[in-house]
Write a structure and sequence with these properties.
Distance between the termini: 36 Å
Number of strands: 0
Number of helices: 6
Structural class: mainly alpha
Oligomer: single chain
C-alpha cells in the first residue's frame, strides 16, 4: 500500500514538473526536465538512505513510501534512455553525449551529496 500511494504521488509530481517545464524549455530541450528530476531524485534518495539509519524514523515509511514509491516513480531511467536515443536518431551527437555525461556525473554526484549532506552542513 505504501508503494502504491507513494508511486501515485511521485508520478503526479513528475507530471506536474513536465507541465511546468513546457513553459521554460522548447520542445527540443524537454530532456532537461528529465535531467533536473533525476538530479533532485538522486539527492533525495541519497539523503533518505541516511535517514534509514536513524532509528527515530519508520524504516518502512522511508523505504517503501518515499524511496521506492515516490522517488522511484518520480525519477526515470527509461525516459532518459528514450530521450538519448531520440537525440542520437536526430544526429545531435554532441548534445546526446553531454546529456549522458551530465546525467551520470550529476546524478551520482548528487546522490553522494545527499548521503553526506548532514556531514557537510554540520
Amino acid at each position: 500500500m505504501l508503494v502504491a500511494i507513494g508511486g501515485s504521488v511521485g508520478a503526479s509530481t513528475r507530471y506536474f514538473f513536465y507541465l511546468t517545464s513546457k513553459n521554460f524549455f522548447s520542445p527540443n530541450y524537454l530532456f532537461i526536465n528529465t535531467l533536473i528530476i533525476n538530479i533532485i531524485g538522486s539527492f533525495l534518495i541519497g539523503y533518505l538512505i541516511v535517514m534509514l539509519e536513524n532509528k527515530s524514523f519508520s524504516q518502512d515509511f522511508i523505504k517503501y513510501f518515499l524511496i521506492i514509491g515516490i522517488l522511484g516513480s518520480f525519477t526515470t531511467f527509461s525516459t532518459f534512455s528514450l530521450e538519448t536515443i531520440e537525440l542520437l536518431v536526430d544526429k545531435k551527437f554532441l548534445l546526446a553525449f553531454f546529456y549522458i555525461f551530465l546525467s551520470l556525473f550529476l546524478c551520482l554526484s548528487f546522490t553522494f551529496l545527499g548521503l553526506n549532506f548532514n556531514k557537510i552542513v554540520n
